[in-house]
Design brief:
The protein is an alpha+beta fold and 353 residues long. The chain contains eleven helices and 13 strands. The protein folds into three domains: 109 residues, Beta-Lactamase; 74 residues; 162 residues, Heat Shock Protein 90 (2-Layer Sandwich), CATH 3.30.565.10. Helix 6 packs antiparallel against helix 7.
């Protein structure tokens, strides 16, 4: 153990501090390090670096080289996979200790930056989403005005035609004008105001499950892992059903109606969305075992008209993200072949609470 005074200082730090001996065995760890590694100091002390970090050969080489050279080492955005399965991104500083420092040879500081990276990525996505929505609303106005004129002119022309068989052509004009208007409305998103009422998120997800199973009664399977202690949140139940339904339908289409969808709910505490810190957040994971989203599309899946399917419109996920943001929340996605998870974050308290 380190002397009392330095030990007290280390215990107050928010940065994870680990001290290793010359054999890269853990000698000491502060509370922030225990939180990062998700285990107690008593359980971790004495373990080697390779027992703490999976696939840690490169990291072990860095520490060994620092021991030999006696020169400090720093690196940013280092990706480490812990043996618990969690992957973390950290800024790392490795400092050789003077000989005879309570059995310690190396001091390793790890500052977890996953949350900072998430906040930066989230802020960029929200800014882009807001800009896209503004452009779409302006574009919708410019498109719908001439569409209304075309439709009206076709109706007037239909009344003047002497030959009824020609009405087929005016009906095509009217039908296509209506189709384009509906497409524009879907691009813009929900038009009616957002309602605030108590919503049970499990009732929302159960409604979505029943709707999708009615549409696909064949090989589709649902697994529900719900936290029964979740509180109600303030929101619009119908809009939240639409958001979750769009995500689930997207998964079903990717799996071609044959696969497993897992719906999971949890509570997150002291969670930041869009620069605002929320005391309680409801987290909804919608997971599928489909082929995954191509890497080139993963950063753009929430933008309108972006889709990996030839027959797709690319509007479902954009509308879902818009609904989440209207509720003060956010949707994130991680995907690899066989494992895609869309995570919906919704504040329990409303903007006005």
């Amino acid at each position: 153990m380190l002397p009392d005074s330095p030990q007290r200082i280390l215990e107050s730090l928010s940065t994870a501090v680990l001290v290793f001996d010359v054999e890269l065995r853990l000698v000491s760890i502060n509370p922030a390090g225990e939180m990062l590694l998700a285990a107690s100091a008593r359980k971790l002390t004495g373990l080697t670096l390779n027992e703490l970090i999976a696939d840690g050969k490169d990291f072990a080489k860095v520490l060994t080289d620092t021991l030999r050279s006696r020169h400090p080492f720093t690196a940013r955005s280092v990706r480490l996979r812990l043996f618990g399965g969690q992957a973390v991104t950290v800024d790392c500083a490795v400092t050789p200790l003077p000989e005879g420092t309570a059995g310690g040879a190396l001091l390793v500081e790890l500052s977890q930056i996953d949350r900072l990276l998430r906040l930066a990525r989230e802020e960029l996505m929200r800014d882009r989403q807001t800009a896209n929505r503004a452009v779409l609303r302006g574009l919708a106005h410019e498109i719908k005005n001439p569409l209304g004129g075309l439709r009206g002119a076709a109706q007037l022309l239909e009344r003047e035609l002497a030959e009824p068989s020609l009405n087929e052509y005016t009906q095509i004009i009217i039908h296509e004008a209506d189709r384009l208007r509906n497409l524009v409305d879907r691009m813009v998103g929900p038009a009616r105001p957002y309602r605030r009422e108590p919503v049970n998120i499990h009732e929302v997800l159960e409604r979505v499950r029943r709707l999708v199973l009615a549409e696909h009664p064949g090989g589709l399977r649902f697994e529900c892992d719900f936290d029964p202690s979740l509180p109600e949140l303030a929101g619009d139940a119908e809009q939240l059903i639409q958001a979750a339904l769009n995500i689930v339908r997207n998964a079903v289409q990717a799996m071609q109606g044959d696969g497993t969808i897992v719906m999971r709910t949890r509570i997150e505490r002291n969670f930041t969305i869009g620069g605002k810190r929320h005391r309680l957040i409801v987290r909804v994971d919608i997971e599928d075992n489909g082929p995954g989203i191509p890497p080139a599309l993963q950063e753009h899946v929430f933008y309108p008209m972006v889709t990996g399917r030839p027959e797709g419109t690319g509007l479902g996920l954009s509308i879902a993200q818009d609904i989440a943001q209207r509720h003060g929340g956010l949707i994130e996605c991680v995907s690899r072949p066989g494992h895609t998870v869309f995570t919906l974050y919704l504040p329990v308290e409303s903007e006005h609470d």
